[in-house]
Write a structure and sequence with these properties.
Strand content: 15-25%
Number of helices: 14
Strand order of the largest sheet: 4-5-16-13-14-15
CATH architecture of the largest domain: 3-Layer(aba) Sandwich
CATH topology of the largest domain: Rossmann fold
Structural class: alpha/beta
Low-confidence stretches: none
CATH class of the largest domain: Alpha Beta
Number of strands: 18
Mean pLDDT: 96
Distance between the termini: 32 Å
Shape: globular
Radius of gyration: 20 Å
Number of domains: 2
Largest sheet: 6 strands, mixed
């Protein structure tokens, strides 16, 4: 296997601009007294994309990592012909994340969440971590982290809602270093986060960090790096469905690095992000130009999450308001938040399969439905350069003629769990 040297970079607080060293797993600036993301500032300013046999790590210049891990695949970007013709667009580029070997992309979990997992797990210093990584997920992220940690023998505790356990399918049984706890039926992603936060009170565990982890965002940013280095320029528009908005924040950050690179143009892509109705808390806040999220009762949020096809988009507490979050990204790029219904996303998914020849998940179908809507409304110039981020697909081909294996929870907890019980049982899983 090829190897790389640890990437050289510093961290910068978005709110204050303070630049400081990464101590190994820094998630925020301890000197900043307001909610803020931190960003990476890489020593290499012009990216040197490695050959395809580096997999995902072909973009290692702009990944905050210590090593390469086994089994990765990079996003692939291509110019659409049939879908573009159906929509009347002349410069539609599709960045595909999933399983489509004939296109050169082989993410076996079929989701761009692999870009997060391969980056985050490669940020871990294998000589220093004697603790267990904790990841809360609505499904796809858990599947990606489980695969990467299993293949590379990294201890992992997952927390997932019981209603989303069907997303935890795999080609083979996992390494015993991966364990799963779940909140009972009727819970949502926020309940899974709450459960993981209780486990994290034990010194045995450490948090992956979600949107605050620069490795997660910079891993997701490889979708934009794939698009821009393939097209040769920064697109005019970027379309993606969002649950937390972390991928769109990552796209904005990558865009700014590419401007600094100097070879791909100086424009900011308009970020067009989409939610699946009726679960639309970021759309509601954006429509009234509110930096703060609006009140969203837990019972209504859980009910709305049950109704949507794209369950992975059901994050009640996204990184929207903080400095460097989605609100700032949308403002900086002149972006917008769109909404698609289940019926609209299902039509979009069928259209993608008819024209491009591969199945896609509900979340990227939400993004395509929003693109269709904007084209129909005449809001996009037909010659504009458009990047459509297909964040997951190819599951039919991946599962064809295969028997899949499902990860079962080691423990299921009530929606209001006893903290001591959660901690004791979670610790016991790794004894």
């Amino acid at each position: 296997m090829k190897s790389i040297k640890p990437t050289q970079y510093t961290l910068k607080c978005v709110a204050t601009g303070r630049e400081f060293a990464d101590e190994g797993w820094t998630l925020d600036d301890p000197r900043c007294d307001v909610p803020s993301l931190v960003r990476t500032s890489y020593a290499v300013k012009q990216i040197d994309v490695r050959p395809d046999d580096y997999g995902f790590y072909k973009f290692c210049d702009w990944l905050p990592i210590n090593r390469m891990l086994e089994g990765s695949s990079a996003p692939v970007t291509y110019k659409s012909e049939k879908l573009a013709a159906r929509l009347g667009l002349n410069n539609l580029y599709i960045t595909f994340n999933g399983y489509w070997p004939s296109k050169g992309v082989a993410m076996s979990t079929c989701s761009f969440k692999e870009t997060e997992a391969y980056s985050v797990c490669a940020r871990i210093d294998p000589n220093k971590s004697d603790k267990v990584l904790v990841v809360a997920s609505a499904g796809n992220t858990a599947r990606a982290f489980a695969k990467v940690c299993s293949d590379n023998n990294i201890p992992l505790l997952l927390s997932v809602p019981s209603d989303n356990l069907s997303a935890l399918w795999f080609e083979k049984p996992l390494n015993k270093c991966v364990k799963l706890i779940a909140c009972e039926k009727g819970g949502d992603y926020f309940d899974a986060i709450n459960l993981s936060n209780i486990a994290l009170k034990s010194p045995r565990f450490y948090a992956e960090g979600g949107a605050k982890n620069v490795a997660r965002r910079d891993g997701m940013a490889t979708t934009v790096l794939s698009a821009v280095t393939t097209i040769g320029r920064i697109p005019d528009y970027y379309f993606q469905a969002v649950g937390s908005g972390t991928g769109a924040i990552a796209a904005w950050e990558a865009n700014m690095r590419l401007i600094e690179d100097g070879r791909f143009g100086s424009n900011l892509m308009k970020l067009i992000v989409s939610q699946n109705a009726p679960f639309v808390p970021m759309y509601d806040a954006w429509r009234v130009d509110s930096r703060e999220m609006l009140p969203y009762a837990a019972t209504k949020a859980r009910r709305d999450a049950e109704l949507i096809d794209a369950k992975v988009l059901s994050n009640r507490k996204p990184p929207y308001s903080l400095a460097g979050g989605l609100y700032d990204a949308l403002k900086a790029t002149g972006g917008d938040v769109m909404v698609a219904t289940n019926a609209q996303l299902r039509r979009a998914a069928r259209l993608f399969f008819e024209t491009e020849g591969v199945d896609i998940y509900s979340a990227p179908a939400v993004a395509l439905a929003s693109l269709i809507k904007m084209v129909d409304e005449g809001r996009i110039d037909r010659d504009a350069c458009i990047m459509l981020n297909i964040t997951g697909g190819g599951e039919r081909a991946m599962m064809a003629d295969k028997e899949v294996w499902y990860l079962k929870p080691d423990h299921v907890f009530p929606l209001t769990p006893d903290a001591d019980d959660v901690i004791a049982k979670a610790e016991a899983l790794f004894e």
